Amino acid sequence: MKKLLLSAMACYALTIPARAQDSKNYLYLFSDSVIYAKKIQLRPDFSGYWQFKADSRRVPVDQVKFFNNEDGFFANTRKLSFIGETSFSERVLEGKINLYQERPYDPYMYRRGYSSYGPNRQYPANLSMYYNKGYGDLKRVRYKNLAEDMADHPESMQFLNDYKKSTSLSKIMYVTAGASIIAGFVSILSSGTSFSKGSNFTTGAILMGVGTGLSVSGYMIQLSGTKNIERAVDNYNR
Predict the structure, then answer these.
(1) Higher-pLDDT residue of 57, 222
(2) Contacts 24+ apart (CB under 8 A), 83-88
């Protein structure tokens, strides 16, 4: 019995390759091992570099893939950063596909009473987010990535394809809008500086108006299409 008790204590204190439980405080390392602790804090060391303090143990931030504490569940986005900088974004939706909001973890902000969205709460998916399955590597919320991970779910794929169509249409409208605005600007310049209502000025004003309208319409289509990503994730997680 004594040996069993000592073994249990050792398993709790040491890094162990196990599936983490979100009801506990833990660090999930890139090595797929887990460090459990009664309290986990992100604090700077004497040199000003950030590190985790898991009870009495100190762990460099670059080693931590995920962590869970009283503030929520967070993922390291270092591998998706252009400069390789470590930052932790919060999981705002938990399911077969987990969504992470691009909102860096600031422990001082949380200490001031920051309100977390928390798991399982409805949150609109958008292109500034990350996602993963289980404890897998993070990916950016993009059509290509989601299509690979949702290929086994026809209903979600339909929403993704609708998103792709709307994106293609909005791009065409943006390009057309840009061409109209440029053409209108050139036409107005060619009318001279008198701001007369000559044919060139009128044509230019119409072209710029059409371009602005196309630009707004393209944005609305893009915004509506992005909601299909949210529908795809929601259906996949059911």
Answers:
(1) 57
(2) 86/50, 86/61, 86/62, 88/42
pLDDT, one tens digit per residue, over 85-124 is 888 899 988 999 999 987 667 666 655 545 454 444 455 6
From the centroid of its chain, how far is CA 35? 25
Beta strands 88-93; 130-132: pairing state:
unpaired
Specify the pLDDT at position 201.
75
**Is residue 52 scored above 70 in pLDDT?**
yes
57 φ, ψ to 5°? -90, 140
d(CA 35, CA 64): 10
Q: Containing H/E element for 14?
A: none
Q: Are 219 and 226 in contact (CB under 8 A)?
A: no
Name the strand (E) or helix (H) holding 223.
helix 199-236
